[in-house]
């Protein structure tokens, strides 16, 4: 199993991708390296993996099923063994803390086409959490002080990016309501209309999370990613971060892509139907052509925290800094908040009643 780590030619230290300069940089001597300078070396390693065969040691063997889903890697810096699941593509050695890249995980059909490099660092993720806590009226007052960050991980999450041209034919039912009155009665007239919209749209880079480990709602909440920053995949971008390969393949992701494309198409077409009191979809036909999918790794900061023995997970877009995550709420404060709303409604109702009585 080939394991790749980039060494600084100046001092021998482990180099990694630096988000500030968008280059590989040695944290020991501050030497910077252009990504293209490592490309030839990277390709050579892909085609000439290390051969590290070991004789089978004595002792007890794994039982049936015990090692399913496990992979073992050896750190070239310290010789420590790293155990990870089969979907882990890059990590940090727990013994010497050097970044390592599991080259074999990204070979062949599993190799991503593109990667969006990290642009915000770990400190920005911590600052994002603190800002996320500000102004939350129902947040328990002690949460910010007692909540502690268990782990912050920079991870490249696998996404399928779908491109497609869309032809749509959508029929709507619209109504127009007219109301008038005389001295005795109030009249309402409802007119019904059949509306048809036919047209074409194009979609590019519709993202669908390709990792079953990630909450799809969380990943969609930190969108959008700016895909103009995507570059051809190189393993050098992964150094210093975690990375997952997809375990939800392209075919399994198509239903979600179709759902998002269809919903966006219908919403865009419906925005052209104006001047009606109400509009409902009666029939919708959406056809795709030139539909293709690409495999891209997108940068995400994950923050895991604990409070009152409960786990909370937050996510930050590693490119744009958009921060999301659910928070606990103070039940007593929530009851006061509801009581305040009820009191406000009661006061408004009393005022309206008083005004009505004044005009009788």
How would you describe this structure in keywords?
16 strands, elongated, alpha+beta, 2 domains, 360 residues, 11-stranded mixed sheet
Could you describe the 3D structure shown?
The chain has helices at residues 35-47, 122-133, 143-146, 216-221, 250-270, 331-358, and strands at 3-4, 16-18, 23-25, 32-33, 70-74, 81-85, 88-92, 99-102, 114-115, 148-181, 186-209, 231-232, 242-244, 278-307, 310-317, 323-325. 23% of the residues lie in helices and 38% in strands. The chain has two domains: 3-55 and 68-111, no CATH class; 122-329, no CATH class. The strands form three sheets. Strands 1, 7, 8, 9, 10, 11, 12, 13, 14, 15 and 16 form an eleven-stranded mixed β-sheet that branches. β10 (148-181) and β11 form a beta hairpin. The longest helix has 28 residues, at 331-358. The radius of gyration is 28 Å and the shape is elongated. By secondary structure, the protein is α+β, with helices and mostly antiparallel strands.
- Report the count of strand segments: 16
Number of helices: 6
Report the structural category: alpha+beta
User: How far is it from the N-terminal to the C-terminal residue, by CA?
Assistant: 88 Å
Low-confidence stretches: 47-63
Secondary-structure element series: EEEEHEEEEEHHEEHEEHEEEH
Integer count of domains: 2
The backbone outline, from C-alpha atoms, is elongated
Helical fraction equals 10-25%
Radius of gyration: 28 Å
Query: How can the largest sheet be summarized?
Result: 11 strands, mixed
Beta-strand share of residues: 35-45%
Mean pLDDT across every amino acid position: 74
């Amino acid at each position: 199993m080939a394991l790749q780590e980039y060494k600084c030619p100046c001092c021998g230290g482990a180099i990694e991708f630096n988000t500030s300069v968008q280059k590989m940089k040695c944290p020991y001597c501050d030497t910077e390296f252009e990504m293209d300078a490592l490309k030839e070396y990277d390709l050579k390693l892909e085609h000439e993996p290390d051969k590290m065969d070991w004789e089978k040691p004595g002792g007890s063997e794994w039982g049936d099923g015990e090692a399913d889903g496990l992979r073992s890697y050896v750190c070239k810096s310290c010789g420590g063994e790293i155990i990870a699941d089969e979907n882990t593509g890059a990590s940090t050695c727990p013994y010497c803390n050097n970044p390592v890249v599991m080259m074999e995980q990204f070979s062949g059909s599993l190799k991503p086409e593109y990667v969006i490099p990290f642009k915000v660092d770990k400190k920005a993720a911590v600052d994002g959490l603190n800002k996320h806590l500000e102004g939350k009226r129902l947040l328990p007052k002690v949460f910010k002080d007692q909540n502690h960050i268990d782990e912050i991980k920079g991870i490249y999450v696998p996404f399928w990016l779908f491109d497609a041209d869309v032809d749509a034919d959508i029929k709507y039912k619209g109504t127009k309501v007219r109301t008038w009155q005389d001295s005795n009665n109030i009249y309402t007239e409802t007119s019904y209309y059949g509306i048809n919209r036919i047209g074409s749209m194009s979609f590019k880079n519709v993202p669908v999370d390709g990792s079953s480990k990630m909450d799809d709602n969380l990943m969609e909440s930190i969108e959008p990613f700016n895909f103009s920053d995507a570059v051809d995949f190189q393993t050098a971008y992964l150094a210093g971060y975690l990375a997952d390969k997809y375990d939800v393949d392209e075919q399994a992701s198509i239903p979600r892509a179709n759902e998002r494309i269809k919903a966006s198409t219908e919403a865009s077409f419906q925005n052209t139907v104006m001047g009606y009191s109400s509009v409902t979809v009666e029939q919708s036909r959406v056809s795709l052509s030139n539909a293709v999918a690409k495999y891209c790794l997108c940068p995400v900061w994950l923050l895991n925290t604990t409070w009152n023995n409960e786990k909370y997970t937050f996510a930050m877009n590693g490119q744009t800094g958009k921060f999301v995550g659910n928070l606990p709420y103070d039940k007593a404060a929530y009851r006061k908040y509801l009581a305040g709303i009820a009191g406000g409604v009661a006061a408004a109702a009393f005022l309206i009643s008083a005004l009505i009585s004044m005009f009788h």
